Structure prediction request, 365 residues.
Amino acid sequence: MLLAMTWKVLPVFCLHTQYMICIIKRIIMANNHNKTLSLGIIGAGDIVSKNHLPVLSSLNEIHINWITDIDLQKSQSLADAYKIPVIELPEDLHKIPPTDIVLLAIPYGARKPYYNIFKGHNTSIYVEKPFALTLEEHKEICSLFPAHRIACGFQRRSWGPTQLIKDFIKENIFGELKKIRFELGNPASFVGLADFFSNIKLAGGGILLDVGIHGIDTMLFCASAQNFELISSKMIVKNGYDIHTEAKFIINKKLNCELLVSNVIKTTNQIEFTFNDAIASYSLFDLSGKINISPIDKDKTPSLSIQNNKSIMPNTPFQTFYNHWSHFISGIKSNTANWTSAHDSFITTELIEKIYKESKGKNIK
Prediction:
């Protein structure tokens, strides 16, 4: 009799227990979403002062605990301007105060010692590009952090025009996507990078790795690239730094892509998507957010421009950085990776690596 009653009550008890577990999980998730996350900033360069700090200071989910830099005067200056604490960068990096998130915005060649330290702190990390020089290195760094706890600074992914183009492709608004071409630069470009490129070990590479990588990542991201085949590439190198790169490759076994990044010749400074029925193009670097759309058959349909429209928000650099950070923070709180994750850009690093390797030996000194 007792056994029979037990079998009747047990399912009800299990259902009640499962319900209570669900309630507890929801409470924990709600608390996580409401939690303010502590943040430390390593690096006090232009990308931090002009973009990250203005945005991070406005995010309610973030509390900036400290900023540091190898140049204490630079970090002190930013700390004073934004009324945030500054710490001297310790010789023993293990003494860096732990925080929920760290923004690592220092040159590529100076980052390696920090990764294992932050893994030990159970810290989430936002790494500015370039993230890695090789696919092996990219995967090795990512293996130290869950996908939702490591972000890469490919902010153009979070920009309104990029998101809108990705929707055009997904929904076949202008028919099938046939080709993507990215061009960047002219003989007067990148003069401000002279100091940055004074040390090849810190910079990691030239203009392809530092700025052209945004175009490559946008091409791959918009096309939801799963694979690629590099057809050809050539590069001009001066004093160890690439100043001109041309490449042709195929995405997903059918989509033709072309790349031109140069400090030698004048380019269109546009990323161009050719569909069956139209060509859509915009600049990744003038940040106007203007998309030009030209019909293939110009006799039937006029050209048009989309700008300052709700459909292409976020539009400004601050809005874009805010969107990128907000998605990263949301992923941390929900334990769910999204397009901000460094785990989502393996293919970008792989293609960059192949272009450099393929061009080796073909360089014009």
Remarks:
- The domain at 37-154 is CATH 3.40.50.720 (Rossmann fold).
- The two ends are 92 Å apart (CA to CA).
